[in-house]
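Hello, quick one for you while I still have it in my head. A protein chain has come my way and I'm curious about its shape. Can you walk me through what the tokens say about the fold? No rush at all, and the record is pasted right below.
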Amino acid sequence: MTNPRWTRRPEGSNWGDFGPDDQLGRLNLITPEKVRQGVAEVTDGISFCLSLPLDKPGGNALNPRRYPPVLRPTLRGDAVNFIATSDGAPDVLCDDLAIIHLQYSTQWDAFSHVGGRFDVDGDGKDEHVFYNGYRGGEDITGPSDPQDAGVRASMKTESTSRAAKLGVENAAVHGMQGRAVMIDLRHHYGDARTYVGYDELMRVLEADNVTVETGDMACFHTGFGQRILDMGDPDEEVLHNSCAVLNGRDPRLLNWVTDSGVTALISDNYAVEGLPAQPCDHDHECSNLPLHEHCLFKNGIPLGELWHLTPLAEWLRARNRSRFLLTAPPLRLPGAVGSPVTPIATV
């Protein structure tokens, strides 16, 4: 199989399977039938908001490069456009803007969030590439000057980075609505830091009689989002050493992700997978983010992180259910590599 952008694809990838210019990856499997299956799970008409408040977890102890949102009013001429009046009219107006790190809180990772160095041309030279061979520096671009990155006292008014391909807006347009399945790791492993590989996952699925089918979105409840809410001020020890995480270094777990046909992996923890990853047992270089590599880079499977799943998971468990309708489009923000999301589960 060849492609205008590559002659070799990474082992274990599905590049090209959905077409040479595909930017949706496994989201192609969220079909009208999968949406109907999701709707069929709605029996009680109850909705759950699966987002944390977007100023959580608080501070920057979880990720030193990401900070809570900042709200500021807009300007009306040279005046503050907040609790403002004009022209003697009785209207009192408030208008604001946000400076927001798009992956600070409840979020989707786009495929452009994590790529890899790989020899796509078979010429012995590794290149910076992303899902389906889209190129860093061509399809996904950013500045070289640090002054054009981060939050500065004086910033350019135009964007300085852009995923012209594989931006998060593709998932927004597709809809991100369909059937989801809750996998309740917290019920079985509690709040202790636990790396969950294939064997541990299979035990949970069997014990809870949970079936994941092609086209489903898989939600992993660990309780981490609830811990964030319960602790109030962020506790660095809790943030980095609590709750279950998937063991992205387990090849059988990665094979399960491939074979199950899941269209998204979602968790209420920081990265779905454990960071740091378990030690690498290969002689060659290993990814620091093996599950991200497998999902975002190789197979076009988006990752949802830092969701709030506990109330929904407890409701489903009390009724011996695991499936529900999930509606969770990211922002339609062209060129972004991730996005806040306010997911809604309907049961």
Notes: The mean pLDDT is 96.
